[in-house]
Amino acid sequence: MSRISVRGFAVASATAVTTVGAVVGVAAGQPATVNAEATAADATTIADIPAGAQAQVQTASLTQQADEASTQADASALKSAQEAARKAAAETAQSKKDAADQQAKKEADARKKKELAASRSSERTDLGDLVGKSSYTIAETQAIARQMMAGDQFQCFSNIVSHESGWNYKATNAGSGAYGLVQALPGSKMASAGSDWQTNPATQIKWGLNYMNDRYGSPCGAWSFWQANSWY
């Protein structure tokens, strides 16, 4: 029989070693009580232990190793399962959020289109009601102007008109002959926008807006020049 070292087996299992000690003691005609640590320290080769005890030691060590490996495998499998569950839950939540965001965007776009269509329809109706009257209030004249230009240009246009005519479409400068909301000089220039230039604020606004766009790029460009020079 080959002499194989069992120093690693000696402390693998206290219960197994005690059993080996008992077997050795019985075989030698000694009492069954054996000190496990002493036995582990003294044992050096399998040849010193009966064949049955060798099998018990090996079985106990292998069983312990198998239990430890199984425990590690179970912990690793549990960790992997938990990580997979967290990932799946996160992906599901993100998918639901994306779907909700897309639906909300579609609904918001639909509302905007509906509101814009309603606003344009209202503006066409209001402008039609205002044009062709025999006289206009300042509020009505301003409402016409708002509908004839971009929203971000109205305030600049209004600033100029307020200084030039105070929103009076019949305003006349006795000294120069300038006339209307934008004080065209001479007033007859506005005939290019319509023959009713003397009585229709919409015609005056159309002419004034074209003038500001052609000369300064926009009403706001005209207002910047007016601020620096007090004329435009």
From TrEMBL:
Residues 1-22 form the signal peptide. Gene3D superfamilies: 1.10.530.10. Keywords: Signal. Residues 86-124 are annotated as: Disordered. It comes from the Bacteria. The keyword Signal applies. Residues 151-221 form the Transglycosylase SLT domain. InterPro entries: Lysozyme-like_dom_sf, Transglycosylase_SLT_dom_1. This is Transglycosylase SLT domain-containing protein. It comes from Streptomyces siderophoricus. The lineage of its organism: Bacteria, Bacillati, Actinomycetota, Actinomycetes, Kitasatosporales.
